[in-house]
Amino acid sequence: MMSTPLIIQGGMGVGVSDWRLARAVSLEGELGVVSGTALNSVMVRRLQNGDPGGHVQRALSHFVDSTVASEILATYYVEGGIPTGARFKRSPVPSVSPTRTLQRLNIAAGFVEVWLAKEGHNGIVGINFLEKLQTSNLAATYGAMLAGVDYMLMGAGVPREIPGVLDRFVEHEDASIRIAVSGTPGTTEVFTTVSPREALNTIPKSSLKRPAFLAIISSSTLASHLVKKSTGSVEGFVIEGVLAGGHNAPPRGPMKLTDRGEPIYSHKDEADLAEIRALGLPFWLAGSYGSPEKLVQAIELGASGIQVGTAFAFCEESGVAPKLREAVIDRILHGDIVEGEAVFTDPHASPTGFPFKVVQLPGTQSERSVYEERPRKCDLGYLRQVAVRDDGAIVYLCASEPVEDYVRKGGKIEDTVDRKCLCNALLSNVGLAQTQEDGYVEQPLLTAGDDLVHVGQFLRPGQTSYRARDVLAHLKGQ
Predict the structure, then answer these.
(1) E strand residue ranges, 201-278
(2) How far is CA 343 from CA 245, 259, 262, 382, in A?
(3) What number is the average pLDDT over the span 126-142?
(4) Are 109 and 140 in contact (CB under 8 A)?
(5) Taking CA 52 as the corner, what is the angle to CA 51 and CA 58, rounded to the nearest 5 degrees?
(6) Domains of the chain, each with CATH number or no CATH
(7) For 418-448, how does the pLDDT look when each residue is reduced to its tens digit (9 = 90+)?
(8) Taking residues 352-366, what's their average pLDDT?
(9) What mean pLDDT is reported for the chain?
(10) Backbone torsions φ then ψ of 258, nearest 5 degrees
(11) How confident is the model over 233-270, as pLDDT tens digits?
């Protein structure tokens, strides 16, 4: 494996850990990571905003297929940006059989984000994917590899087939993964495939570099399974505890809630580090490890280092909209965000059924009144679940879509209670909110780890903001 980092910057949300943040961390000698979630939507909305700085256009000018790059610009680029309040033209919705147009868009989006993060330096850059986004990950993975991505990280599932995908993309070969389905009669299996040679008019003549694969997991059992059963090599693990932001693994056993309504975890939900050390692969600890003391502790436990998300999510280079970032830091400085109340581990918010950490911030969907004002709509579809009906037809369900649609397609009405549209909310977090046909503007829903209250440790006296290098220097005791 290439240079082993001490600190991995978390691959967060939609556009939070964007190319600017990953680049800033990489330039400091650690592993900067871009988020691979909804990259196609992020790219096309940046273009429709006029592509300030010309960054997307610059990256596309280096894309291997100039025809595809030109088609994307002709379809989505708006010089000067769309008017305030205008609707964004959407990327096609993901499916198990993506059109050639969608595959090209996803490949290009993966390329653009990684290329910009790596532009002009030799630092290491990774890309992070959610395994649950199976219908959109493959093409973006190939695009990231075209840009020379060094690490690939994946969590929120069992990414057993991904190492083999990386091996096949090295030689530009077709790659497929099995799609997790519900309501499957008999032994019906559903696959999704990406063929680089069919998607693009031009591909490189030489082989690509295979990125090191790090699985983001929460148990030693899964780590052992991936080492033994993956279709290719696994180079290490990020061991993510329940205090980490975003999606958390559900508690083992029946779901029980605290008086506040949060899932109750126990020692059974802690990874056995002795068993993980015995596998002989590097690992990093994550989930409220963003302090110098925790870094020392991780090394003493045999880890190669730590993964840190929340501290980077609120630094200046983060993709979080400045007004949201500033509001959170202001509340921390004034003592309005306190430990135990700043973040709520919501067992219902995510349509995936996984607990999801929500920052309690006025004016966002953390407030019930703001959530209830939103007309239910599913127009992006990244978190849709694939189901097979009795007649063999494939349908797509999202527990956050209109209730009548979900039930009509075979979903249970109780699964829809308090579900939130994370796809639209997370794009709103980074200033790319959609204005819907009825005039409704999508509202944000911030996520962070439980150590949000400690973000003030990175602020120098008199300052109200900090940079990625300040986080790294503080963590290293510099």
Answers:
(1) 212-217, 236-240
(2) 9, 15, 10, 24
(3) 94
(4) yes
(5) 60
(6) 7-333+458-475 (3.20.20)
(7) 999 999 999 999 999 999 999 999 999 999 9
(8) 93
(9) 93
(10) -75, 175
(11) 999 999 988 767 788 888 888 889 999 989 998 888 88
Nearest partner of 49 among 430, 359, 455, 367, judged by Cα: 430
pTM of the model: 0.95
**In the 8-state DSSP scheme, what is residue 50?**
T
Report the C-alpha gap between 464 and 470 in whole angstroms.
13
Q: Shortest CA distance to 110 belongs to which of 161, 200, 35?
A: 35
Tell me how crowded residue 367 is: count the other CB atoms within 10 A of its CB.
Answer: 14
Cβ of 198: how many Cβ atoms within 10 Å? Answer: 11
Give the whole-angstrom CA distance, residue 445 versus residue 443. 7
* Window from 18-32, 49-63, 317-331, 390-404 with minimum mean pLDDT: 390-404
Of 451, 473, 430, the closest CA to residue 16 belongs to 430
Distance CA 129, CA 38 (A): 10
The CA distance from 475 to 448, in Å, is: 18
Smallest CA-to-CA distance from 143 within 75, 203, 79 is with 203
Query: Nearest CA to 177 among 142, 212, 147?
Result: 142
171 to each of 52, 111, 203, how far by Cα in Å? 35, 17, 10
Does residue 185 have a pLDDT over 60? no
**Chain centroid, CA 335 distance in Å:** 30
As a whole number, mean pLDDT of residues 156-169 equals 93
Q: How many CA atoms lie within 13 A of 270 on its CB side?
A: 5
Q: What is the DSSP letter of 441?
A: B
- Alpha-carbon distance of 33 to 155, in angstroms, equals 14
Backbone angles phi, psi at 75, to 5 degrees: -85, -35
Is the pLDDT at 65 greater than 80? The verdict is yes
Alpha helices in 119-161 (DSSP H): 134-146
User: Which pLDDT belongs to residue 235?
Assistant: 96
8 Å CB contact between 151 and 7 = no
Name, in order, each residue with C-beta under 8 angstroms of 450's C-beta and a sequence gap of 6 or more. 243, 287, 288, 339, 342, 343, 357
CA distance 339 to 316: 23
CB 154 within 8 A of CB 131: yes
